[in-house]
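User: I'm writing a tutorial on reading structure tokens. Could you give me a worked example: one chain, its sequence, then its tokens, then a sentence or two explaining what the tokens reveal?
Assistant: Sure. Here is the example chain.
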Amino acid sequence: MKLTTFLIPLLLLLAGCSSQPTLPDFTASGYLADRGAVRIWRKNSHQQVAHMMTVFSPFNGDATEITDYSWQDGKLTSIQRQTKGAHPDDITLRFDPQGRLSFMQRQLQGRREAVSTDTVELYTFDAERMLKISDALLSGRVMLKQGRWLTGGEVKTCQGKLVQPALDSRSLGYIAQRQASSSVPLSIAWLEAPEGTQLLLAANEDYCQWEPKEDGF
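And here are its predicted structure tokens:
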């Protein structure tokens, strides 16, 4: 079953799934959005989120968005977003312990601009939304895996393990087509959950080069 078919009910209904074994403090998850794929890395401290990084990779174009969120004692302390591609846009927001904005900066196509109140509100709302999505995905054991595609359907993960994801024939055909037109090994990202396995991305870039590690996250 594709993960897109159970993502919405998962987000609505899985908050109470607490009987499963506790996840490690450092986790990776993700989902398919309307316009692209979202990958989420998260680190908890004392059972509270401390750091979260999301990467939005669009299906069309090169405007990849990388967003870092930090929390302390359950309160949002900073948001940093980099939009790469033809129109780069970097935004940094920091907040004091009372939740008030203490620093803001926007670097838009080589020039600095002020950050509007509406933009700050949008980014803080998005931080809360992404945290809720992350909570629901992890409650449903939707876990992200990445690695290099090998022959015979095997993948060498970024942790060096050889695995064979249970991808459907359509996904396997898509990977084979991409690999046939590429002179370098493909990287793939996929999701595993009790409900099934879903291909998330397949690209010529090496995902493992920039996948965050727990020690430095």
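What the tokens reveal: Residues 1-6, 8-18 have pLDDT under 50 and may be disordered. Helices lie at 7-13, 117-139, 169-180.
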